[in-house]
Write a structure and sequence with these properties.
The structure is a homodimer. The first copy, chain A, is mostly beta strands. Helix content of chain A is about 10%, strand content about 50%. The longest helix of chain A is centred in the C-terminal third of the chain and has 11 residues.
């Protein structure tokens, strides 16, 4: 795509943008918070949306955070447990995790690709990504 | 998926939820803001994420809003113009539209499916959807 801003320049991090930010996933360097998990964030002012790719069986250990979290399954499947309630989610499913609820996830047999948004920006992810991206 | 909350009950609108909200796209009634466009929202406290399906050539006319907007292309293609800059986006592309920038969109030859998030909740969409969903 001619004219796409590359992630290493300003692509996925728009802290000072007053124009649109255009991002191509293949140009966003991933960071890995746990084995078998790769996260590619797009960082706005009030929100962060991440492509989260998990290999089959990869695990996001139980945790919680103040950020509200809303995710959509776009490939594969995942089993989520939120506040003790477990669901298997497939393509076309979404989930909303309110602030401070404990949750964990396990990718299905074919792995999973999620599009997850955090409000406000999840700063530990932004910091981890900026360290990788050299921003 | 056993136990999925249906949209007509509380599924896609979590204003009072202190547990997770689980949403299956096929259970969320769409509303149509313009010809050839169907929107299925999932509404949180601080954010709204929508599946936006546009038929080939469908048009979102130029507009702007205070809500920050971050979208991901998950099927098809779309041509977006933001503040006078035009890009054709395909699967794996994302875009961030800061507050109050004018933007418009035209779906590609095979249509497009977007996953778009608005912060704060885009109230005119929430109102339109609640009118359809009977909430």
């Amino acid at each position: 795509m001619s004219g796409t801003v590359k992630a290493g320049e300003a692509g996925a991090d728009s802290r000072s943008a007053e124009s649109a930010t255009w991002v191509r996933r293949s140009e966003v360097p991933p960071f890995s918070p746990a084995p078998g998990i790769q996260i590619q964030p797009v960082i706005g002012k009030s929100l962060m949306t991440c492509w989260i790719a998990m290999e089959p069986g990869a695990v996001v250990a139980e945790h919680s955070h103040a950020n509200e979290q809303l995710g959509v399954v776009v490939e594969g499947s995942v089993t989520l447990t939120v506040a003790g309630v477990t669901r298997e989610l497939v393509v076309g499913d979404a989930y909303l995790v309110p602030s401070d609820l404990t949750h964990k996830g396990v990718a299905g047999a074919d792995g999973v690709l999620l599009v997850e948004t955090f409000v406000p920006v999840r700063e530990e992810y932004a910091k981890a990504w900026r360290a990788i991206a050299g921003e």
